[in-house]
Each structure stands twice: as C-alpha cells, then as structure tokens.
C-alpha cells in the first residue's frame, strides 16, 4: 500500500471547537428545513448562510472496503502528511504487515498526530451528531453537506495510545537503503525534496522497476534535494502529490506573505498565520529572520503556539543528514542548521504549548502568531479568529494549501479582519513535471484522473495537465488498473559446482550453449540450481530384485536435438563400425538405410530420424549413439 | 578461482595507523587511513608506496572508506590525499565528516606549532582533503561505480562510527572499524544483519578480555573519583575530546547532582563546547534514551562541568579535570600530569587503551620514573588507575558480531599478535571458519566461490515450479534447460525457446522396437494383459489404454500386431522419442521378460 493519508477537508463541514466559551458560536441558530421541521436544529447550525455540523470534527478515511487490509504486507510512507490515517489502518483493519518510513517522517508525523489529538481532546464536546448522516436526511441538506461522500465512514479522531501503537509498527529506513521484501522485490526510498525525510519509492525486481513519485519538489528549500537520477529506467512511474495551486509561484507568495505581514504590523494590527507545526513554517521563519530587521520589525514578538511547538523546533535542528547542502554545512561548523535557533535565543520568537499558562502573561500586541490548525476548526487558531476577527486592523494569512480559505473562514463570517491568501506549495507544478518526465523517461506514467485534464474551474488552461508520450494512464477512486508489462525473466543462481560441470558449445559466433540438468531449490523466492545428486549405488546384496525396483525414479528428460544427418557420411560411419550390408533407398522426403541382417531400418529425413529395429538393445544403443554424433543437443 | 586479497598497511597485528587494502572482484578499496600515536617518524603513517610505486593512487584505488574520526583511523588522510596524491572518493558518515577535520587540525597544530615539525600537512590541505569526502547515511547503499557498492552499519564506538560492507556482485567484505557491542551512556550498540560476507575484517583490541558489567566499572570509577576528591586530591582524566569524554561527563554530571558535590569539574581545551555541540546536533546517532528525551533535557548540556583554564591547575583544593589527549603523549593532559604527578593525594585515571611508547602506556605498565624531554626525570607518586571505558567490543562482543553476520572467513586487525592468536583459535573452533591475522605488509588471499547469477525465463521457471509443487527431499526434481551465453549475458531458457531463438528446427529421433511375446490369445486380450502389467509396475506413471487398441505410457506408444507367420506370437511395437530414452529402454526390456502368468 502506497501511503495512508487522511482527508481532513471533511472537518470544514463542522463548527469550530472554541478553546474558551464563544458566545457567538453558541448563539448560532439551529438549521430548519424548508418545510419548517426542526428535528435537526440540535445537530446543524447556520452561520451566514452556511450550515455546519455542531459536533466533534470527523475525518474521511482511505478506502478500506475495496480490499482486505489483512492481505496488505507492506505500507510505504512518502511523507509525514501522508501517514495521518495510519492509526485507523493499523489498529482497526486486521493489517499485520510492516510500515516503512524515514526517521524524520515518523518523528514529525508523530508531532502532527499529537497536535491533532491534543487539539481535539482538550475541548471535550458533549454532543455527537449522527442523525444528519442518515442517507434520507443527508439528501435534504444544503450543499456541500448534501454532496459529502461516504459520510457513514467518517471517523472521530484517534487517541494517543492508538497513535503510539501505530507508530510502533513502523520500520525506520534511510534514503537509498535497499529493503528486501520476501525475496521477491526490493523497495528503496529516495529523497523527494519536499519535506524533512520525504521520500519517493522505487519498487523493483531484477527486471521491473516501478517508481512511486509522491509529493516531490524541485525547489531549494530546507530538505535534501530530490533524487531524480535514481528514477531513471522505470517501467512505470506513478505520479501523485503535485502542487494544489499550480498557478501560484511559491517564491512570489513568500514575498507577499512578508509584505502583508509587515504592513499589518506597522499599522498596529496583529497577524495570524494558521499553519502546521512543521514544514513551510521553518522556511517562513527563515525568511522573516532575514526580513525583520530591514523591515523594522525587530520589536514585534513572534509567537508559535502548538502543543508540539518546542519539539518541532528542536527536531528540525537534529536531522542534519536530511537537510539541503547549505544547512548540512552549517552543522559541520557546528551550528544549528535553522536560524530559528537564533530567533529563540534573542527572544524574537517565543513558543508555547497553548494559549493557556505562560503565554497569557507574555502576550503583547501587535504581534504575529503561528498556530494550527489550518482548517480553522480546532486548535489555538480558533481562539485568535474569535479574538481578532472583529477588527479590520488584523490580518489572517493563509499559507497552507490543503484547505480552501473561503471554506475555512465560513463559520467566522461576517468578518472584519483582512484575509490574505498566500498559498505556499512547493510540490511539482506541471511545467516541472514535464521537465522531470523528460529527464527520467519512464515507459509508462500512471496518475490520478485529475491530472489528465485541466482544472474544472479553468477548463481552457490545457497547460495545467500532464503532457507526456505515451499519454498517462489514469485512475480513479476504487478503480483497478492493470499495468502494461509482462514479466519474462527472473534471476536464478547456478551453484559453482554445477557451473563447473557445464560444457558450453559455440553454436554460432558469439553464442554458446550449455544444456543444464539440475535440481531447482526455491526458498524465500530465491531460486538456486544445484548439481543433481549422484545416483545411489545399487545395493551390494544379491537379493533378487523386484521388477519395480528398476523403474526409473525421476524422469530425466533428454535434451532436444537439432541438425541433420548426411546420409553418405552416416553410411560410411556405419561401415566403419562393422555393418557390412548397408543398403540405401531414396524416398520422397529422404532416405531409408537398411541393415538387412539385423532386420533394421533407419528412416532419415531433414528433421527426423526413425530407427526401427528388433528388440536388440545393444544394437539399438549403438545405432543411437552413431546418429547422435551428427546432431547437436539443446 | 575468484579471490579476495587483504593487505594491512597498518593495524596488522598492531593497534595504530589503521589502513587495510582490500582487492575484491577487480576493485581496490582502502579501509581507513590512520596515524600511529607511538611514532614520530616515518612510521607514524602507513607506507603508501606499497600501493603503487610510480602510478597515481587515484588510478589504483576505487575508493577510500573511513570508519570513524579517531586519528588512528583518519590521521594520515590529508597526507595521503594531498601530499601523496589521491583524488578519488573518500566515504565516511556525516558526523565523521563533521568532526574529522577538527581533530586533524588539532593534530596538525600539536605537531607543527608545538613540536615545530615541518613537511607536515597544512590547514589548507585538510580543507582540500575534506572536499573529496562523500558523506553516507546508515544503511544507504552507495553505488561507488556500476559494480562496487558500500553500505554503512552503526558501530557504536564513537559518534558517527560505522562498519562498512563492501560488495561487488555476490562477493562481499565487512570491515568493522572499531565497534562496541554493549550500549553505553551515550551511544547504542553496534548492529549488523545476517549479511553473510565472504570475509569479516574485525578489530580485536580486547581479543582476550571479557569485561565485567559496565555498571560495576562505572561504580568503581565514581568511587575512586569521589574518594580522591573527598581527601582533597585532584583527579586527572586524560581523554580524547570526543567520545569517552562525553560518556564520562554524563556519568560525573549525574553523580555530582545526586550527591550534591561541590568540587569543580573542568574540561580542558576549547573543543569542549564545540564537541558537545556536535553531540547535540547529531543526536540521532546517540542511544535511544538520549534521543527520546532530548527535547525535555539535552544530556549534552552540562551544569557542573566548566571550561578549564591553564591557571586552574595550580589552584588549591580538589578538582576533576578532563584533559586531552587521551594517551598522555602530548598537549594539555601531559602538562597537567607533570604538575600533579608528584603528589600522592592525586590520581590519574586512564579510561582507555594506550599505545606503546606513550606516557600513558608507560605508567600503566608500572613505570614510576619517567624520562621526559631534556633528560629530566619525573617521579610519579600520584595514584595511577586504569579503567577500561574505551568502547571496543570484548572477546564476547567480537564472537557475538561474528554470530550476527555469519561470515565465511574472519580476519583480525587492530590488536596485539599474542591476543589475536588466542582469539583466532577460539573463532576457528566455535564457528569452523578460517581466521587470518596478517602482519603489516603481509597479504592474505581468500578464495571465494560465488554462484553465478543468470536470467531464467519465467515460462521455464513456472513450468518447473508447477510440476514440483510438493517438495520431496528424497526425490529431487530435475529441471532441464538450455543456458544461452551471448556476450556477457547468461540466460537459462527452455530448449524449445533456445532452438527458436537460434532459428533452428528440432530434429526428432524416434525409436521403434519390435518385442515378441508368446501369447496365444486374441490381440485385444494381449493388449489388456500388457496394460494391466504395466499399470501394476509403473505406479507413478500415466499408463493409458486408448480406444484404438494402443497403450501409452506417458508419451510412449505401444501397439500390438499378430505375427505374420506364428499366431501364437504377438509383436509389440514400442515407439518413443529420444527425450524419453530412459523410459523407452526400460519398457522394452521389461516387456521382453514376458508377461506374468496370472494377470487375468
């Protein structure tokens, strides 16, 4: 199984979870059906024309009905965002295999999960809505609730014990490490350049190579650059995790981010940056590190609020081997690779586990707050939205591309606060994809259907799709795709003793043949050929043998023959070996050689020889060997 | 026959200047490039002229691998690459790459600036040398070229220490460097998978030692330090800046905290803080406990341990000082030692191995009067203690590693000849593998017998595995195929495919034998008797009686006709192709014996 992501856009249908009682949210009116019935008004609330579920947010799981997950042997994880559904899979589906991921992926993945669990568990909600999920009821709801898929499969968040159990099933691997799976295939993670420890995977046998390219970046940010060379010679390249915002240039977005931030702060407003606790935030902090002095922001406090803020900042400094060259060089000095160490030291950046406790004492405005969750449905960000939403001095800047910012903001409307959308998605865009494919030249490309057509909102942008030859094979949810290649060879090992016994014969210039009769041993999908065992010595006792003792035990097939027999030479050979009464008759297709005394007849044609004789074994064997002299064995 | 050749240029029946040449399947690899602490002349570096007299080293060596940052493993590297001249790749782990140049610079300073030697490598040479270094991850398979690949395993010994597997085709060598099989306070234990190398080159520093539990040694150490401090004495612990030092610092730090002790602990040289920084940034290379808790409490941030100033040595009262280098052969540790040696209240604790010729080695072997520079005699009154904290595997650990890796041959380096001899016997007895211990300059040749990988057509393989689904060890299934050798490709295909690919047609060789049987019955009755007879004898074969009156045994055809002259004799025509030769021949001789009397 390739990756194990969680669709969190489902949470956009829920009301935010406020950290402190929010009078605004609690006063929202219940939703009333067109016919006036109010049986859903406890579950659904209306806000500025949108309807939200008033319940603990739920997540949309990967498809688990299509196949029996206990038959999955291995899960390969490509980056920490793509493992968020892992606890659901490892703890509830009978999955008993191994999960492979790099160390940073696991450590940061754990932080993301911890933050998720924490921000949902710390705001216990008495009510759990389920009536609206009834198919008959859902039909009556307004969009987008009406169109939400598989709502019956939506699940509440997992717990920390489940997270720990899931993570304990992960086997840590390093880039370019070759991992043997059951002797049949080898998998190798390669740097994908997108995040700390993010990987593409190569799945290969001796003859076939499938590359799984998911969430890759060619931009130079903090992670190790993408390893493209190792993707070459792929039979199939599965391509997914492209940028969600193909029209936005990440560099330009960072610039806009900085200038909006500076402008707001200069005007005395606060800036809220809803974000994940790892990833782009490191790059943003680095940009700000270079920017704040020149922009005159040195006295503005930056707050990073997350239950895992400290861990995230600390972890980022210890993965030297997974960083880009520049950062690695800093570690050699030895200096912390990320400048946020210095921001913390100089008190410009402060981090807190939550808004409660120390933060409330230190809190000074105007300020910049980085906090989660980017969906604006849970986490400390909810508090700041409620706190700052009413003033137009403040700005919220969206940088994470996973959620539509308009949908994210919907339950906070009407909103006076400024909203700026600067999505920073460093993953491959379509231009980079075609460059990559040209470079790597896979025989076939497989990708989600969405990438084979322009985005639905920009149907004329034919440049916003994958363009390659042959055209990519696309797949949809729950579709089975047959990959277009046929396996023809496998590796087998010939033991040295057997190799020594082989007699190669040059058949044509440069081509030699040897017939091999050997014992095949197969263990763990590895095949070995050994010398056949020596036939057991006949028992020395003179006891009369039963007929069946002589039955040939195994059926050692004789080799195939090829060639033709020149009659004249054959007759000469016969005469040399003491046959004096040889007579040759021509037939339509060849000749008949007669040995009159022995009542034996040999039909010789271009592609066949037939020896017909009395039951005289020594004679037959003699003739056989004479014929074989003229033929080649295969 | 394919062979692997190993020649130590250093560390052959010796400890110091580790440098081992390995030739495997046409590739030449140099393992480590160390200096010898016991010598100050030419002998301190390996004799690289052995590799090639007049050619360039780069042409001869495919790569150089450095196992860890200790100078006896990397100290000759700038000399080798910049002064002798080598431009090929040098592989080491990231922490080694980070720390190695610092120790080299330190070494250079002591040699050139303090001892005033000339004709030594320069700072620039160290920098240029490091540019040739390629850093590797643990377990990453590094393709040096098309055929040669290397892979690093965790070795424990010091931060970033690695064992290396060198592999060409299916032949492989594992070089352990220095390693430690028991986790300590800051590092984990060495680990390798069952990679079954043709040869394991292992260090054998503690070939004959089986150490007691680490806890006991730690308690002993703390007790000695504590007693000395209590009676107002000074404790000198000569260490190398990175490695044991951090382990002992963690140990003392926690002890000081627990016992609430006040005596100062100092760490000499400016390296301290820097060294600890490396540990903080490369925390993923430390042991699990430290890695798990580093966010809450970084074990390498010491509260009680302060930087040392030269003037402190003359301060009255108790103190503990960690000073470099570890073998008391130069530098600050030697200076402090000279100051404190005369007082019996003081103590020097040697926490690691000392190379012959060093002051450390002399005092450990009981010498109490030392001749220093300028013929001065130093009388050693202070207590001298030896505690083996150096993180080498002991005999038990070495055996454990051999058990883990399952090598076909073992070669010992980095140890003393006498001790090696003992370990060699033990290894040969216990594992029944050959064990070698070449001296420097002596070449050991190991013959390998690799199996030959070929491509087998899936059709043929499936045919064979399908017929042999039930594995029966008593009756091994024979498989028949044709090995096609073209250029350098080896393919095993079915004979039919081989013929087809070569554009040849099959020549069918068929035999038909007349077997005369005395049987007065009607033809079809005879056939039935023959059928029953064969069915009874050939239980494992498919024997069929066809509607047209013939019998088949597998693909062999038997037909019966009456004799033209003698009605009491029937003629059986047995017909088979050459491929069924064995069975056909067997059948004719079986039938010739006649039919059993009562088969009705």
TrEMBL record, chain A:
Pfam families: Beta-Casp, IntS9_C, Lactamase_B_6
Keywords from the named record: Cytoplasm, Nucleus
Region (Disordered): 525-551
Compartment(s) where it occurs, according to its Swiss-Prot or TrEMBL record: Cytoplasm; Nucleus
Chain ranges of the Beta-Casp domain: 281-409
InterPro entries listed in its UniProt record: Beta_Casp, Integrator_9su, IntS9-like_C, Metallo-B-lactamas, RibonucZ/Hydroxyglut_hydro
GO cellular component terms listed in the entry, alphabetical order: cytosol; INTAC complex; integrator complex
Any GO BP: negative regulation of transmembrane receptor protein serine/threonine kinase signaling pathway
The family this protein is said to belong to: Belongs to the metallo-beta-lactamase superfamily. RNA-metabolizing metallo-beta-lactamase-like family. INTS9 subfamily.
Protein name: Integrator complex subunit 9
Organism: Columba livia (Rock dove)
UniProtKB/TrEMBL annotation, chain B:
Endpoints of the signal sequence: none
Gene Ontology biological-process annotations: snRNA processing
Keyword Electron transport: no
Subcellular location: Cytoplasm; Nucleus
Keyword field contains Hydrolase: yes
GO CC terms: cytoplasm; nucleus
Cross-referenced PANTHER family: CLEAVAGE AND POLYADENYLATION SPECIFICITY FACTOR FAMILY MEMBER, INTEGRATOR COMPLEX SUBUNIT 11
Identification of the protein by name: Integrator complex subunit 11
Organism: Caloenas nicobarica
């Amino acid at each position: 199984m390739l990756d194990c992501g969680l669709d969190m856009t489902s949470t956009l249908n829920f009301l935010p979870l406020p950290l402190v009682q929010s009078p605004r949210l609690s006063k929202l009116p219940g939703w009333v059906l067109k016919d006036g019935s109010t049986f859903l008004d406890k579950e659904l609330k209306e806000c500025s024309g949108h309807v939200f579920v008033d319940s603990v947010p739920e997540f949309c799981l990967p498809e688990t009905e299509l196949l029996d997950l206990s038959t999955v042997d291995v899960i390969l994880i490509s980056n920490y965002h793509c493992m968020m559904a892992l606890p659901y899979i490892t703890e509830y589906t009978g999955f008993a295999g191994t999960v492979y991921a790099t160390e940073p992926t696991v450590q940061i993945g754990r932080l993301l999960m911890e933050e998720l669990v924490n921000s949902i568990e710390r705001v216990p909600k008495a009510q759990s809505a389920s009536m609206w999920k009834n198919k008959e009821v859902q039909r009556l709801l307004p969009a987008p609730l009406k169109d939400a898929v598989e709502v019956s499969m939506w699940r509440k968040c997992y717990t920390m014990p489940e997270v720990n159990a899931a993570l304990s099933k992960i086997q840590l691997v390093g880039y370019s490490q070759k991992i043997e799976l059951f002797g049949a295939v080898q998998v190798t993670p390669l740097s994908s350049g997108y995040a700390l420890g993010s990987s593409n995977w190569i799945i290969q046998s001796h003859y076939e190579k499938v590359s799984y390219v998911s969430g890759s970046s060619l931009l130079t940010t903090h992670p190790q650059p993408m390893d493209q060379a190792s993707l070459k010679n792929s039979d199939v390249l599965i391509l997914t995790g492209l940028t969600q915002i193909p029209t936005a240039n990440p560099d330009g977005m960072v610039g806009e981010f900085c200038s909006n931030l500076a402008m707001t702060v200069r005007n005395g407003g606060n800036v809220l940056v809803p974000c994940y606790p790892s990833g782009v935030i490191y790059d943003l902090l680095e940009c700000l590190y270079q920017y704040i002095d020149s922009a005159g922001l040195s006295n503005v406090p930056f707050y990073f609020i997350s239950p895992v803020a400290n861990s995230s900042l600390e972890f980022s400094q210890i993965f030297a081997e997974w960083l880009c060259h520049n950062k690695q060089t800093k570690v050699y000095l030895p200096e912390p690779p990320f400048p946020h160490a210095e921001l913390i030291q100089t008190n410009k950046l402060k981090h807190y586990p939550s808004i409660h406790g120390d933060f409330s004492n230190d809190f000074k405005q105007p300020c910049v707050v980085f906090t989660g969750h980017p969906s604006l449905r849970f986490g400390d960000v909810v508090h700041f939205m409620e706190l700052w939403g009413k003033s137009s001095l403040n700005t919220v800047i969206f940088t994470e591309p996973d959620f539509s910012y308009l949908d994210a903001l919907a339950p906070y409307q009407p909103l006076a606060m400024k909203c700026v959308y600067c999505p920073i998605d460093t993953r491959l865009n379509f231009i980079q994809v075609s460059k990559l494919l040209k470079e790597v030249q896979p025989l076939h490309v497989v990708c989600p259907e969405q990438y084979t057509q322009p985005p639905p909102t920009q149907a004329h942008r034919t440049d916003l799709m994958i363009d390659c030859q042959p055209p990519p094979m696309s797949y949809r949810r729950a579709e089975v795709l047959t990959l277009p290649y046929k396996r023809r060879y496998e590796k087998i090992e010939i033991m040295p003793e057997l190799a020594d016994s082989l007699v190669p014969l040059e058949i044509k210039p440069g081509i030699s043949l040897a017939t091999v009769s050997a014992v095949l041993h197969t263990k763990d999908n590895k095949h070995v050929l050994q010398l056949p065992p020596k036939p057991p010595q006949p028992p020395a006792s003179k006891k009369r043998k039963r007929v069946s003792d002589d039955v040939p035990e195994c059926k050692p097939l004789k080799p195939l023959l090829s060639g033709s027999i020149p009659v004249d030479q054959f007759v000469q050979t016969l005469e040399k070996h003491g046959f004096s009464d040889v007579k040759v008759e021509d037939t339509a297709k060849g000749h008949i050689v007669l040995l009159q005394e022995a009542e034996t007849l040999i039909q010789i044609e271009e592609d066949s020889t037939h020896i017909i004789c009395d039951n005289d074994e020594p004679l037959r064997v003699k003739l056989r060997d004479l014929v074989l002299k003229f033929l080649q064995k295969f | 026959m394919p062979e692997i050749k190993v020649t130590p240029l250093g560390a052959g029946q010796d400890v110091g200047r580790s440098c081992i040449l390995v030739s495997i399947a046409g590739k030449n690899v140099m393992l480590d490039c160390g200096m010898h602490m016991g010598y100050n002349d030419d002998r301190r570096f390996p004799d690289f002229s052995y590799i090639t007299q007049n050619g360039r080293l780069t042409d001869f060596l495919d790569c150089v691998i450095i196992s860890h940052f200790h100078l006896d493993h990397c100290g000759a590297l700038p000399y080798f690459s910049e002064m002798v001249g080598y431009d090929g790749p040098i592989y080491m782990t990231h922490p080694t790459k980070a720390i190695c140049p610092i120790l080299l610079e330190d070494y250079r300073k002591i040699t050139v600036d303090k001892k005033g030697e000339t004709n030594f490598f320069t700072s620039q040479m160290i920098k240029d040398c490091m540019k040739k270094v390629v850093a590797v991850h643990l377990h990453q398979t590094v393709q040096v070229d098309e055929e040669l690949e290397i892979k690093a395993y965790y070795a424990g010994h010091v931060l970033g220490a690695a064992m290396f597997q060198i592999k060409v085709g299916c032949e492989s060598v594992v070089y352990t460097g220095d390693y430690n099989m028991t986790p300590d306070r800051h590092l984990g234990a060495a680990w390798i998978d069952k990679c079954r190398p043709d040869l394991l080159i292992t260090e054998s520093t503690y070939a004959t030692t089986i150490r007691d539990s680490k806890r006991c040694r730690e308690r002993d150490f703390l007790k000695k330090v504590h007693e000395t401090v209590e009676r107002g004495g000074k404790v000198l612990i000569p260490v190398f800046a990175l490695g044991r030092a951090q382990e002992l610092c963690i140990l003392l730090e926690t002890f000081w905290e627990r016992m609430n002790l006040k005596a100062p602990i100092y760490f000499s040289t400016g390296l301290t803080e820097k060294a600890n920084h490396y540990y903080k940034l490369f925390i993923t290379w430390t042991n699990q406990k430290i890695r798990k808790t580093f966010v809450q409490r970084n074990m390498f941030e010491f509260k009680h341990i302060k930087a040392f100033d030269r003037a402190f040595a003359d301060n009255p009262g108790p103190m503990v000082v960690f000073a470099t280098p570890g073998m008391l052969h130069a530098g600050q540790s030697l200076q402090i030692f000279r100051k404190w040696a005369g007082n019996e209240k003081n103590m020097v604790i040697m926490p690691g191995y000392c190379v012959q010729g060093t002051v450390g080695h002399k005092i450990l072997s009981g010498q109490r009067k030392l001749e220093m520079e300028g013929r001065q005699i130093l009388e050693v009154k202070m207590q001298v203690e030896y505690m083996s904290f150096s993180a080498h595997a002991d005999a038990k650990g070495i055996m454990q590693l051999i058990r883990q890796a399952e090598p076909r041959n073992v070669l010992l380096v980095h140890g003393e000849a006498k001790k090696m001899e003992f370990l060699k016997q033990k290894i040969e007895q216990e594992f029944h593998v050959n064990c070698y211990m070449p001296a420097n300059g002596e070449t050991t040749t190991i013959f390998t017998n690799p199996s030959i990988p070929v491509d087998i057509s899936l059709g043929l393989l499936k045919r064979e595995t399908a017929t042999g689904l039930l594995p029966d060890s008593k009756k091994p299934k024979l498989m028949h195929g044709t090995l096609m050798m073209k250029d350098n490709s080896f393919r095993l295909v079915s004979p039919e495919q081989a013929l087809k690919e070569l554009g040849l047609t099959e020549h069918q060789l068929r035999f038909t034998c007349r077997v005369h049987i005395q049987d007065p019955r009607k033809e079809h009755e005879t056939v039935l008797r023959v059928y029953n007879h064969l069915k009874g004898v050939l239980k494992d074969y498919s024997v069929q009686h066809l509607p047209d009156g013939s019998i088949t045994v597998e693909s062999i055809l038997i037909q019966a006709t009456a004799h033209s002259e003698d009605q009491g004799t029937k003629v059986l025509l047995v017909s088979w192709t050459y491929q069924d030769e064995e069975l056909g021949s067997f059948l004719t001789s079986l039938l010739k014996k006649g039919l059993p009397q009562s088969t009705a």
